Amino acid sequence: MAKCKNCKGEITGTDIYCTRCGEKIESTIYYLSQNIFQVILIIIEISLVSLIVLAIMS
Amino acid sequence: MNNNIPNNEQVNAYKCIRCGNEVAPHDVFCCKCGCITTYGNSYVTWDNNKQIIDNGRIIKKKKRLFAQSVLCALMVIAFVAICFAKHLEFYYPIFKFEKIALEKINGYKSVLTENDRTYYGKKVESVEEAKELIAEDYYTQELKCKYTPDKDSLEEEIEKKYDIAAVHLCDISDETVKKMETVLDRMYTLFPSIKGYLTNISVDNLSRDYDGVATFVAYYPFVNDTLSINNFNKVYKTEILLNSKYFLNDSLLKKDTPTKYVGGGTNLDSLAHYLGKYVAFTAVIKKHQAAEFILETSKNTERIEQTIKDYQNDELYQEIVKKSFLEYQSQTEEEVTFEKFLDSISKKAGEKIDDHISRETIIAEAIYDYYLHNDKAAKASLIIVNTLKEYL
Predict the structure, then answer these.
(1) Helix or strand or coil: residue A27?
(2) Distance CA B346, CA B272 (A)
(3) Between B62 and B112, where is the model more confident?
(4) Is residue B43 part of a domain?
(5) Residue B280, in any domain of the structure
């Protein structure tokens, strides 16, 4: 049985939305790209924060 | 949990209020349109989610991503704002990291400044403008270096005293700069007519295999190199590049010079060898009356080309060495070979590279000998220096 990526609730193949949390069910590629995008955003944010801190300190 | 939650029989009769799709007894959301069901409406009771429930959907992940994107955008704006506010100083930490990485790669203290930049399409009409361009090239790289007020004033003093467009002693300690100044002072005292042809003294990460403390670059095409001289004047740099391996590592600089050089000096003193090459080059400039060697225009292009050709072919240097050798022979009773003549100066003077003995090195070694020992230098060195002085 497939599971919702958001709440881990059980979903069937025909479901468009999760019946437990209401999250739209997307393809695996969609979730993968979303996760990659999130990681990139986190890296950018960390680099920017460190650069800003260093710039203020220097 | 809410006490008003409908039982299984009650919810069975419910359909989705938006799309009419049949929903299972305990479905909180419709599987077709994502709208909250009647059961779901009763099930979710906490106030924080009221707004989400009213909208009929809960989109947790997408909201997180959106919030993160907004945060990232705000940071970029802050970054750009600080960039503008702090201008180049903002990059200082980046340079610091870059320098640490470079030093790890090279295995010794290194500099980030570049000496091989070239510019094209610039209109340069006078020697002063050319000198300003050279100085500006280093000024834009100042943040890559450590500076102290003392060193700033020392650099300025050297620039003014010896008429050098840019003295950029990036990261070199104040103490070393002062010692270096004494070498320069002695050289310019011994050869006062060399003033005004050197464009810059800067630090460079020379090749790892290179064992000299510095290198002399007679002409480096700096501005408009490949452009037609009829449209654009060209600027050449005549420079002394100090090897960061020695000048940023004081312990190496204090050591005695390798035995192949003229003996009696430290590595710092051997800077005089490279200044000696500069002294010799000024003789070439003077021979071709190319006083404004820094700036090639359509008027002086012929003289500058002749100077470069002479330097490349060792023409004047050969003449000086030959003349000196003959003089040396005439002053010595026993017969002397050319090799013996060179060996009397130093091993470096007679060093063969690709089966060729560099005349420039012979003269530089003779000058270095003269710098170290003055009138007590080898007879061959004194004769070479005296012959060279005739051309200065």
Answers:
(1) coil
(2) 15
(3) B112
(4) yes
(5) yes
Specify the number of domains making up chain B: 3
pTM of the model: 0.72
> To 10 degrees, what angle do helices B301-312 and B271-287 make?
130
A14 contacts B61? CB cut-off 8 A? no
Does the CB of A55 have a partner CB in chain B at under 8 Å?
yes
Asked whether residue B373 is domain-assigned, the answer is no
Task: Determine, yes or no, domain membership for B33.
Answer: yes
Chain A nearest-CA distance from B93, in A, is: 6
A-B contacts at Cβ under 8 angstroms: 88
- Size of chain A, expressed as the number of residues it contains: 58
B147–A contact, CB cutoff 8 A: no
Q: Which domain holds residue B67?
A: 62-97
B74 to chain A, closest Cα gap in Å: 10
3-state secondary structure of A21: coil
Q: What is the pLDDT of residues B187-221, one digit of tens each?
A: 999 999 999 999 999 999 998 888 899 999 999 99
- Give the pairing type, strands B166-168 and B200-204: parallel
Query: What sign results for the dihedral spanned by CA atoms B258, B264, B265, B271?
Result: negative
Strand A10-11 relative to strand B200-204: parallel, antiparallel, unpaired?
Answer: unpaired
ipTM: 0.73
Which of B339-366 are b and which e, b meaning 16 or more Cβ less than 10 Å from the residue's Cβ? eebbebbbebbbeeeeeebbbbbbbbbb
Average pLDDT, chain B: 87
Residue B25's φ and ψ, nearest 5 degrees, are: -55, -40
Q: Is A28 in the B-facing interface, judged by CB distances under 8 Å?
A: no
Residues B191 and B69 in one domain: no
